[in-house]
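Weekly modeling sync, notes
Attendees: S.R. (lead), two postdocs, one rotation student

Agenda item 3: backlog of single-chain predictions. S.R. asked that every request posted to the team notebook include the full sequence so nobody has to chase files. The rotation student volunteered to paste the first one in as an example of the format we agreed on. Action items at the bottom.

Example entry:
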Amino acid sequence: MQSQVATTDPKGGRVKRRIFLILAIVLALGAYIARRHWKRSAALAPSNVTVTHQLAPEFSLTDLSGQKLDLATYRGKVVLLDFWATWCGPCRTEIPHFVDLQNKYRDQGLRIIGISLDDDAKPVRAFYQQLKMNYPVAVGDASLAERYGGILGLPVSFLVGCDGRIHARHVGETDISVIEQEIGPLLGEEKCTHANAGN
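Predicted structure, as returned to the notebook:
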């Protein structure tokens, strides 16, 4: 009767250990990156939650008409800052409501600013004309999105008071009545009484 001797493959064992080690490193790195990104995103409150007077990061861009678009010049106005893109379905649904809001509250001091996250301005211009957008739109980038806590999905809008501070952040398509309810009290603040001048 022949005895069977178990044999091992030292090379196969080393390969398996290396694969396991690489997978463990990749998972650990992924968890680390996700945690850092989550912390940055959490710097701003989640959807539809009032933000505790965090100053809106300033920016200076060129809008579709070639004019300078500087957030600092909007101090004293209530600003609805909308991050969107032409390929975003919910954005297409939301924008006509923003056009209506701008018509309704412009004389009271509301200013809407659109920041497209498209890669190219050409489709944005066509979209702007198609929807008859009545507020300035500029093409932003990942750096600007990061300064606003990281824009992981679109649309994302920020309601900025006359004091330049963020009062609400909305992620995804938001019922326009919710935004309108938030705008009213901000427009009525004493610091907004000079909002009709300029811009």
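Discussion: group reviewed the output briefly. The chain has two domains: 10-42, 49-192.
Action items: rotation student to repeat for the remaining queue; S.R. to check formatting next week.
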